[in-house]
Amino acid sequence: MSSLAAARADNFYHPPDWDPRKESRAAHHDRKNNAGAPAWMSHPLRERAKKLDQGILTIRFEMPFNVRCTGCDNHIGKGVRFNAEKKAIGKYLSTKIWSFRMMCHCEDNTWRTDRRRNPHFIEIHTDPKNAEYIVAEGAEKVAEAKYEEAVELGVEALDDPEEAAKRRADPFHMLEATQPKRAQGSTRTMRINELIKHRDEGWADDYATSQLLRQVHRQRRHEREAELFINQAKGISLDLLPEAPEDRKAAASAPLQYEQRLAAVRRGEKRMRLMAGSILSEVTPGDAKAKEAKRLKLLQMRRERGMQVTSAKPESKRGGNVPRVQIGPMNAAAPPRPCAAVAQSSSKATIVATRAAPAAALVQYSDSE
Question: Per the record, what is one GO cellular component (predicted)?
């Protein structure tokens, strides 16, 4: 028997004990050689068919357009390939709608692209109705740059070399291509006449036109040199924009804005003083107000230094309370006043005091202090 007859002319080997009426050839091979093994072990795609019982097949998917992953914020270009899980999720008429789910594999050495710490998937669906793909999850489609046509730009497009060769070889093709251009002949003629007129007006006297152009450039160069000189004198090494009317108005209104802000701050301080003060306090005008502020400042300074400020009621001409300040420990008893002897001489009076300094003394001051 020839080798072709042994292979049954289909290039497959049929075991002698295989009955095609009972089981398939793959099932027969799996039963004989892979007893107890998973079903995907006998599938031609092996590991890619692990989820075939769920209707999922792992395939190689190529990104149809540029997208940006929302999980790691990385850009994925058109044509990048992934191992995607392909699954049918519905139908449009008689055409199946396929879903391709894949894990983003962008790497930038940060936690965002770590597959263990931040796994994120991208899912894309087919759209048979519009004949395109839809990003369903995990990414955003990046808008591609639109190239404007020659008609939109207002210019005339050059003929393609291949198109020109076809026109030369086929007269009918040339007739079909040139027919639309003949309708635009009148418009082109008007535009060409306008360009010729503009050229004649501008360059009728080429010497005067050149002289005017050189004068404009000379003036701009002098202005630029003066600006550079002023900037160097001020120590400015950056190129500054020319002065604008808006800048001039803003500079003129700056003092007024400062006065307004200062007045607002003063009104706020006055309001805070009124809210923090007593409603029964007297309003002292002029010098009396300044003296009162000075007295309160002295009291605060003495409190900070550890002095005990008390309010006593000695007899005074004004009849008011006179604060007393105690220097030293607050709970120390006041020692007796030191004795002093006064000696009279013929030339002057000498006051002799004891050397022992008191541990504490009472200092009195009036309200005007």
Answer: U2-type spliceosomal complex
